[in-house]
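FIELD: query
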Amino acid sequence: MKTILILPVGISDGNDSRLLSIVALCRECGACVMMDPSLAVPDLDGIILRRDITENKDVDLIISVGGDGSMLYASHEAVIYGTPMIGVSTGHVGYLADVPSNGIEILRDVITGDFETEDRMMLSGEITLDGEVIHRSSPALNDIVIAKTDGSGTAPIELYCHGSDAGKFDADGVIFATPTGSTAYSMAAGGPLVDPLMQCMIVTPICPHSVMSPPAVYSADSVITFRAGTWRASSLELITDGKGGVPIPTGALVTIHKSDCVTKFVKVSDKGFTGVFRSKMNGR
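FIELD: result
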């Protein structure tokens, strides 16, 4: 019997009709449902209450319910469980969740195991000080960002790719995005749109002082480094998929590279990247 982990991050009420419909469909397809106790539906018959992420490692599928933020949260759990994921969108212009809230029946074949997956590249980052790694980021599906924590002035950014100069500019920070994350913060900061199935890293300055600091696309095997100088270095932090800002100490070295992990997305739409993007932008 298959076990389906439902992560209704965008839902706070166990009586939500969308959540109840998904649970009912899972049961109808003969699958066990796993949920966190705080969000379990009133009828607990056949539901496994997951009290800790390390419990019940045997998960066949993760269903995220919410927006893109919910999908990012689910992607981190999908890596831990080593299982594919799919999203039911309850937002308006999310790019990651393929299933509309009024199209839950689409999940029927997926729940029974009839689906294909796409591997989405992820990024990892480390902060090293005096030769010692003091922080390792969790794998990022969207982006890893170096950003200022205060509103005064710009920060001097110096980037190196495999030791060679990759750009020097003053800015509010810099975004290191995956192809999947090209439609998120990177796009808002002027970065290019990239097919999510590509293997590359997008480097986008945040509000650079000079127009001569354009976004750049690097190969997936690139290793980008940034060293925090003495000028306001303590006001910089490392942010992974929009969460958990970690201070970057003066003199620290930040390294960004392709992660060994991937997120397995269940393939739903046949529209392709451009078709999905246009549909989302047009609200359809």
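FIELD: remark
The two ends are 36 Å apart (CA to CA).
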